[in-house]
Amino acid sequence: MASDRDVFQAPKGTRDVLPPDSSRWMEVIGAFAGRAELYGFGLVMTPIFEHYEVFARLGQSTDVVSKEMYDFVDKAGRRLALRPEGTAGTVRAYAQHRPTPPWKVWYCAPNFRYEAPQEGRYRQHWQLGAEAIGSDDPQIDIEMIDFLDGFYRSLGLRQVKLLINSMGDAETRQRYVAVLLDYWLSNAATLGDEMPRAQLNPLRILDSKRPDWQVIIAAAPKLGDYLSDASAAQFDAVQAGLRSVDVAFEVAPRLVRGFDYYTATVFEFQGLALGGAQNALGGGGRYDKLSAEMGGPQAPAIGFGSGIERLLLACDAEAVLPQSTSSTDVFVIDAIGEPDVAKLLHEIRGGDVRADRSYGSKNLKKQWAAASRSGARFGVMYGEREWAEGNVVVKDLSTAQQIEVARLQVVQWLRDHLK
Ligand code: AMP
């Protein structure tokens, strides 16, 4: 036998999701899929790897691109990369297939980032996300935010805070970035070695979590003071719309989010029960230029991503979405080794009742123990005498009461009693 040292482990920063925990994943993904359908979004599935250049378009001052990408050269010498986020591949698919806008799609997929792993931050994480490509109507911004807000609420989360901001249009950002750069230059002593990064993209410093920078970040000029009239009107419309659908929010003047591609509306939902630096539950924003930058048509767009692992941590912290205690309703005990036991299981399952059994053991005590462990509500046993009389024993595993039910009626009996 292999010693402990020889047992392979999942790579650093990755996690296996095993039953029964995986049932919560199914619940979360199912809830998201249902909500996406309510809002008119269809499922999109793009490759897990793309040409490196697709992600490089996200911007070289984005950490995800410059420091964290899992890129590699394939056997034919192509430079490829594992997806670090969901927007780039979706926009690439839009540019390639040119569906009729607005193209409203959702996805559930793993993302890969070479980050320093810690709780809530992994090298492979899963995101539920949605993108609406081909419209600059603020109504779609409102719908997207309302969609994500409703999703969190449907899971029972209450300690969720929504922050919104506007990155303005190109004119806004040009004016603001110049002012911001001057401000960083006047604080060069604090920024130290990171000054070149501030020069590459002055906005990036605003979302830094470095404690020693928080004072200068708090005092930095605000983007909102530089919004063009058109951008301000657009941002006002989004705020009014959110109020009209009762989505509570706070305007966060320094929220810029981690990607270079954002324009106009940006938003982030924070899980207040999570605490610490890893409290961003999900977020997104407009990226009106990305399609054209990918060689596609001019297509204003908005999207968001929400990490599943972090969402489940928030559910734990708020004690919502409890782990279901059972994965089966009925456990069949085989006391006689009859082929009819397999037939009975087949019929129970055919009646849409979740059922399980033990394998390879005729020891009754062990089978009943397995039945209790399974969390099933009923145990169904085929004993010699009952078999001869055309009956089965049904035992309520929570009360230990048992009765005999006619073999031919047991499926219906179980269906009636499990309602
Ligand atoms: P981003 O794509 O960076 O805007 O992140 C969107 C969401 O994905 C975040 O709000 C988190 O919920 C989640 N997320 C991002 N990076 C990670 C990571 N390394 N590990 C776990 N979840 C992550």
What key phrases describe this protein's structure?
8-stranded mixed beta sheet; alpha+beta; binds adenosine monophosphate; elongated; 21% strand; 37% helix; Rossmann fold; single chain; BirA Bifunctional Protein, domain 2; 5-stranded mixed beta sheet; 419 residues
β-strand percent reads 15-25%
Query: Roughly how many Å is the radius of gyration?
Result: 27 Å
**What's the CATH architecture of the largest domain?**
2-Layer Sandwich
Amount of helix: 25-40%
CATH superfamily of the largest domain: Bira Bifunctional Protein, Domain 2
Rounded mean pLDDT is: 93
- Quote the distance from N terminus to C terminus: 47 Å
Shape: elongated
Small molecules (ligands, ions, cofactors) in the structure: adenosine monophosphate
- Unreliable sequence segments: none
The count of domains is 2
Please tally the β strands and state the result: 16
Compute the number of helices: 16
What does this structure look like?
The protein has 419 residues and is of the alpha+beta class. The chain folds into 2 domains: 11-169 and 228-317, Bira Bifunctional Protein, Domain 2 (BirA Bifunctional Protein, domain 2), CATH 3.30.930.10; 330-417, Rossmann fold. It contains 16 helices and 16 strands. It has helices at residues 21-38, 52-56, 63-66, 87-97, 138-154, 170-186, 188-191, 195-200, 214-218, 229-244, 290-293, 308-317, 339-350, 364-374, 384-389, 410-417, and strands at 42-43, 49-51, 71-73, 79-82, 103-112, 124-133, 160-166, 250-251, 263-271, 280-286, 301-307, 330-334, 355-357, 378-382, 391-396, 402-406. The strands form 3 sheets. The protein has an 8-stranded mixed sheet with strand order 1-5-6-11-10-9-7-8, with helices on both faces. Strands 13-12-14-15-16 form a 5-stranded mixed sheet, with helices on both faces. Strands 2-4-3 form a 3-stranded antiparallel sheet. Helix 5 (138-154) runs parallel beside helix 10. It is elongated and about 90 Å long. The mean pLDDT is 93. Bound molecules: adenosine monophosphate.
